[in-house]
């Protein structure tokens, strides 16, 4: 049995990051591979998701209100979240030994599979290039490095630059991307054409995800919001969203207020009456659970992720906060969506089925 080592943001206490890792692992297992998550401890990820933020506490020495807020509210929530995420990883992810440096990568792996998620974006790594995510590490002569559903943003690709990106992609035997926009931009910069494939979360179906759910964590009918853009903190934006919920006679529930684990994320999506989001994975799982949802436009360019996905599935659910005052939720033709998703899933699975082929050195 061939062994595949997954390199991704599995250490981020982020719903989408952990669930897409789980999905890729399970998909590879279904295809007959031995799948292992390479437990690489990327420094910036370890810093920002550590419940104890020494950098914040240091600032708090001269800012008492910051220290009090951190100790009484932020720290307990971060600790609770970290505990639940670690429990999920321990139960569901087959992780290797801890790896702190690229030079210590395990050498018993046939294919190092980098992806999915924002592997080539710079903001998840503190606006620094993480060499490991670009295949800059030693591998056995009979092994290969490949990319699956790598995502990024245009700004990051341009910051990395044509010369460095052209150098990095030579490490990869095969490349695939989550968004056509990113695939096209990489080709434009490097002349290397990759393939567009599905995010791993979409490789599993409703039944695969439903078996992980437990119960409704909100005992009332509600509209679920999951906003990851800067405008979401604007009072005027919040008012528009609140009025939308009031018009529908539904409670407004924010994902961050109720979900502290990947399983709770699935529960929150599954039982919502309607979902408003600026998150790729909130859109993806809304589709998987066949929910009524709307994705909002943003001013940071990150909406391209779910715009590409909806376009591929023939879904027109993009709106903006100004339209919420007159928006009347309508049903989605999920029979059509599921047929298109099935076709894309078959194509993406074929890519993974052919992951083990004679290495071309």
Gist?
With 361 residues, the protein is of the alpha/beta class. The chain has 14 helices and twelve strands. Helix content is 43%, strand content 13%.
Give the class from helix and strand content and strand pairing: alpha/beta
The profile of the biggest β sheet is: 5 strands, parallel
* Strand order in space, largest sheet: 3-2-1-4-5
Termini separation: 22 Å
Query: What is the helix content?
Result: 40-55%
Measured by DSSP, the beta-strand proportion falls in 5-15%
What is the overall silhouette? globular
Query: What do the pLDDT scores average to?
Result: 94
According to DSSP, the number of beta strands is 12
Query: So how many helices?
Result: 14
The residue ranges in which pLDDT falls below 50 over 5 or more consecutive positions are: none
What sequence of helices (H) and strands (E) makes up the elements? EHEHHHEEEHHEHEHEHEHHEHEHEH
Rg result? 21 Å
What this model shows, in words?
The chain is α/β, with parallel strands linked by helices. Strands 3-2-1-4-5 form a 5-stranded parallel β-sheet, with helices on one face. Strands 9-8-10-11-12 form a 5-stranded parallel β-sheet, with helices on both faces. It has a two-stranded parallel sheet with strand order 6-7. The mean pLDDT is 94. α3 packs antiparallel against α4. The protein has helices at 15-30, 43-49, 54-60, 64-92, 154-160, 162-168, 180-190, 206-210, 235-248, 255-258, 262-271, 280-288, 304-313, 334-353; strands at residues 3-7, 34-40, 95-99, 111-114, 144-147, 176-177, 195-196, 222-226, 251-254, 274-277, 293-296, 318-319. It has 14 helices and 12 strands. It is globular and about 60 Å long. Helices cover 43% and strands 13% of the residues.
């Amino acid at each position: 049995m061939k062994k595949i080592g997954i390199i991704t943001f599995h250490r981020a206490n982020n719903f989408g990051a952990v669930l897409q890792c789980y999905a890729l692992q399970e998909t590879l297992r279904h295809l007959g591979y031995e799948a292992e998550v390479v437990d690489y401890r990327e420094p910036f990820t370890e810093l920002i998701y550590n419940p104890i933020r020494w950098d914040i506490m240091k600032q708090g020495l001269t800012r008492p209100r910051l220290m009090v807020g951190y100790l009484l509210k932020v720290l307990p929530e971060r600790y609770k979240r970290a505990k639940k995420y670690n429990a999920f990883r321990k139960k569901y992810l087959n992780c290797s030994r801890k790896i702190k440096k690229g030079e210590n990568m395990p050498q018993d792996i046939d294919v190092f599979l980098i992806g999915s998620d924002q592997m080539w974006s710079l903001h998840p790594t503190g606006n620094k290039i993480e060499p490991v995510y670009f295949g800059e590490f030693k591998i056995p002569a009979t092994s290969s490095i490949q990319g699956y559903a790598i995502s990024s943003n245009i700004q990051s690709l341009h910051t990395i630059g044509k010369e460095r990106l052209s150098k990095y992609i030579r490490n990869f035997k095969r490349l695939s991307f989550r968004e056509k926009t990113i695939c096209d931009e990489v080709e434009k910069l490097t002349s290397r054409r990759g393939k567009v494939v599905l995010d791993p979360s979409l490789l599993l179906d409703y039944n695969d995800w439903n078996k992980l759910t437990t119960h409704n964590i909100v005992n009332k009918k509600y509209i679920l919001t999951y906003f990851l853009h800067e405008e979401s903190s604007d009072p005027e934006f919040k008012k528009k969203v609140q009025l939308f919920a009031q018009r529908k006679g539904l409670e407004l529930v924010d994902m961050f207020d109720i979900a502290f684990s990947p399983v709770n994320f699935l529960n929150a999506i599954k039982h919502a009456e309607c979902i408003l989001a600026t998150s790729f994975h909130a859109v993806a799982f809304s589709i998987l659970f066949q929910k009524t949802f709307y994705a909002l436009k943003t001013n940071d360019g990150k909406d391209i992720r779910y715009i590409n996905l909806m376009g591929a599935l023939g879904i027109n659910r993009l709106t903006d906060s100004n339209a919420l005052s007159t928006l009347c939720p309508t049903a989605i033709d999920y029979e059509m969506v599921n047929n298109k998703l099935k076709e894309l899933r078959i194509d993406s699975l074929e890519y993974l089925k052919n992951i083990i082929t004679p290495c071309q050195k």
